Amino acid sequence: MVVDAEMITTAHWRLRVPTVAPAGRTVCVPTVHPVGDRRVLRCAQAVLDAGFDVHLIWLGGEPGESHPHPRVRETRLPEPASARQRLRLVPTVAAVARRTHADLWHIHDYYLLPHARRWSRRTGRPVLYDVHEYYPEYYSQRFAAPAPVQHAARRLVAGAERWYAGRLGAANAVSEQLADRFRALGLPAVATPNYPSADAFARPARPLTPDLLRRVVHTGSLTTDYGADVLVGLAVELARRAPEVEVLAVSRFPSEAARRRFTEAVERAGRPTNLRMLDPVPVHEVADLLATCGIGLSLMQDVGEARLAVNSKFYEYAIMGLAVVTSDLPAARHFVEERMVARFVPPARPDGFAQAIADLVADAEATCAAVDEAAARAREELSWERTCAPRLRAIVRHLLDVGGGLPGPAVPRPASVGANRP
Fold first, then answer.
1. How many Cβ atoms are within 10 Å of 53's Cβ, its own excluded?
2. What is the distance between the alpha carbons of residues 417 and 422, in angstroms, rounded to a whole number?
3. Angstrom distance (rounded) from CA 403 to CA 25
4. What are phi and psi of 22, to 5 degrees?
5. What is the pTM assigned to this prediction?
6. pLDDT profile of the chain (422 residues), mean per 10
């Protein structure tokens, strides 16, 4: 861990040193997200900049507690090897949070709702529910089941979310659509899309060149729903159609089972030589990676909430000046076609993705000029600090009754559709 005059830097994350006077209040951030999660860090920075202390509780890294700055504490629990283990850690995360004696909980998980409700009822202190996903849609379609069963599951998940969230303090939603769901309950809610932070994306977009178009990157998680199998297939197809193109993929796996499944798919495909796997990249190094590439991939499959979600990586690709090849899903198309140079492909078509990449490379001159123009506009519009952080600070102040009121106009709807998809 390193502390300098401006930044707090650990092995897994980085935050800017707050410059405002401390308010003497602590916001606890309990989550089963992994250490260094991008949205958690963006939210934590906004809270610090409002004068509140932060205690982060998350999974991964070396287990233990640390105090990397007088205003920041961190508790790291063991990294889970599977989704089941992650869920089993929910009570432990809540137990650690209860021991912090915080003034407010800022929870980032649906699973923590019952624990947060009990804590709030016992202490009389508020909870801010950070809503990353369209949870009813997401969970009702996680497993194959007849449509009536999925509809029933959706109603059950939605009912539980409404019941618990409606008895908490407020919601901080990743889209305007989601915020509206909670406003309908009479709950104060703001929309804070996952726009990139200037701290992590301070470097300007470099001019796009034909050489950079031959480096294609995928920064999201690698599971079947996120298109891991399609990624392998498109690498095989691309080797035939455009052998000069290299595909880079960050090794982000939610479980060891997902890692094994992907590795087996790569083996079955004969280990495509144009597919290069990268170690996980800390948030503050993503911009450096994207600057070396020309095309960004989003391979979401048409399951669960995919039709409603805008991947967070779109915002990063946009401001760093990448063209995009993406699954043709409604929310993605709505956002991307207005702001980026893109090709849309049916989600389960590796050959379609390979051809779209080849087409962008073949039309390099026009692609580069259009991307550079779009990137300049995106950097002005898609700013966490200008758009989202003030809203979050206002609602935290409102919950802690320290003034500031609730935020004003909503984020423009076209720019805020979508959930926290990596």
1. 21
2. 15
3. 14
4. -65, 140
5. 0.82
6. 74 93 96 94 96 97 94 96 92 97 96 97 96 85 76 89 94 94 95 91 91 97 95 97 97 92 97 96 90 97 88 93 97 91 96 97 96 92 93 96 55 41 53
